[in-house]
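Co-fold these.
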Amino acid sequence: MQWNELGEQTCSMSRTLSVIGDRWTLLILRDCFLKVRRFDDFQSRLGIGRPILADRLQKLVDSFVLTKVAYQQNPMRYEYRLTQKGLDLYPVIMAIVHWGDVHMSGKKGRPLLHRHMTCGHNFDPVQVCSECAETLDPRQVQVLPGPGAANRDHMPADAAAGSRAGRAKAG
Amino acid sequence: MQWNELGEQTCSMSRTLSVIGDRWTLLILRDCFLKVRRFDDFQSRLGIGRPILADRLQKLVDSFVLTKVAYQQNPMRYEYRLTQKGLDLYPVIMAIVHWGDVHMSGKKGRPLLHRHMTCGHNFDPVQVCSECAETLDPRQVQVLPGPGAANRDHMPADAAAGSRAGRAKAG
DNA sequence: GCAGGCCAGTTCCACTTTAGAACCCACATT
DNA sequence: AATGTGGGTTCTAAAGTGGAACTGGCCTGC
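Predicted complex below.
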């Protein structure tokens, strides 16, 4: 499967990864949430190659995650800002950072802290059920085909006739 | 910056991406949460090349996200299972899937639904503050250096002396 | 009125990674 | 002995990446 075929899959994960699932894109977005907005600032903070940065920014603009806003004329200069679609990636970024804080921090502890201005405390992000507000445990979640499901595509492995004997090749 | 330098950065995001931030790894993990466990099943469901699948599974085992469990002898056969460290990636996976559901679903709607067995409802994952349980808004979150912070490394862009004039080159 | 600098890219080339197919090996079945 | 199964490894060509240099409009200083 090529990278550009990913977005056509009947799977929200694949489709999301076709936008953000690249070596650099999530790091660019992290910096966006840290209020970096300009080409050279991304470039020097990330140490990314200029051609790749230009390509990734363009792709993020094309997929409406970022938008270019003029900040000067003569010559026209644009900065890159998160759209609402981009802002909606916040839980993704925070979940990744939090996992790193828990599982990949050195002895010295986590590099960044997050303070919730609403309540005034340093916090961790927690993922809860939208219906009962309890913390989600993967073992308490059942996956079901939704309205946009393709037949037998990316269903749970155990939903396909119960055992390996009965399964059809998924490809 | 090379891929293998990423894990050495003083940033939880970089460190996490050094483990999971690859084109295929998150798709493999999605299938792990869908209870796929065997080499050929990953291969046929994902359409991934065998050499790359072998490499990614090995790396996930090396970083303790997956573990190999024998399910038969003569010949020895192993299946790949999520460790606790791997299970802790659930919020990451769910956040990505949810973003795809909201922003990348076709007309037909989302491909998969999630049912919370604890409360019996279909749900969406919601990210909340661990302290006050309110939904997180990036504009209400302030980023501060933590105990493991390196000097001036990956700080918010606006924490560096307030304006572009005063900033030192971050590299 | 020309050198040099700033910002935002683009071009070029060497190097690395990936995709895809074929091959391999240790059994187990027929 | 031939065939099948599970889990890989070995190839090659194509794609992607990193780094440095180049482009080009505008501004500043001299």
